[in-house]
Write a structure and sequence with these properties.
153 residues; six-stranded mixed sheet
Length: 153
């Protein structure tokens, strides 16, 4: 029987603009988050929260060995970062990541995962199904009407 531990939230957006806005809002608080996906999709000021950058930062130059051991060390660092964060932010097309899957299942433990998809109305049906590959039990779709928001005043 699997035991549950720490709840994780996978927060997905359809556009880089929404990803940037959410990232800046999370920076204002004390939420421990990581951004997964392509480097080019992330605002320059948020790149320090990217999984690759955080993992590279945790590995010191002292740990340099052969290429294979460096690859394992880097992968283990990424898995640890994902395990210890509260929120994982990604564009919807980058929402499935093998490292997230490895980090959230560990022997007899599995993280309880919830996925929030912002701008769900801009996503295709197959895109909305991508996060379910992680075995997510709760999926929340947020519909944003940009026309309505722009004309509220």
């Amino acid at each position: 029987m699997k035991h549950f531990y720490k709840t994780k939230v996978l927060l997905c957006t359809r556009t880089t603009q929404a990803l940037t806005e959410i990232g800046f809002k999370l920076c204002e608080g004390t939420i421990n988050f990581v951004i997964i996906g392509k480097h080019t999709d992330t605002h320059q000021q948020l790149r320090k929260y990217e999984l690759d950058n955080l993992a590279a930062k945790t590995l010191s130059e002292d740990n340099l060995g052969d290429e294979e051991s460096n690859g394992r060390l880097l992968e283990n660092a990424k898995i640890d970062i994902i395990r210890n964060c509260d929120k994982i932010i990604s564009l919807i097309q980058n929402a499935y990541d093998d490292l997230v899957a490895k980090a959230c299942t560990d022997g007899d433990c599995i993280a309880q995962m919830c996925c929030i998809i912002c701008e769900a109305n801009l996503c295709t049906e197959p895109e909305i199904l991508i996060p379910l590959l992680h075995g997510i039990s709760k999926l929340i779709l947020i519909i944003i009407d940009h026309y309505f928001i722009e004309h509220m005043n």
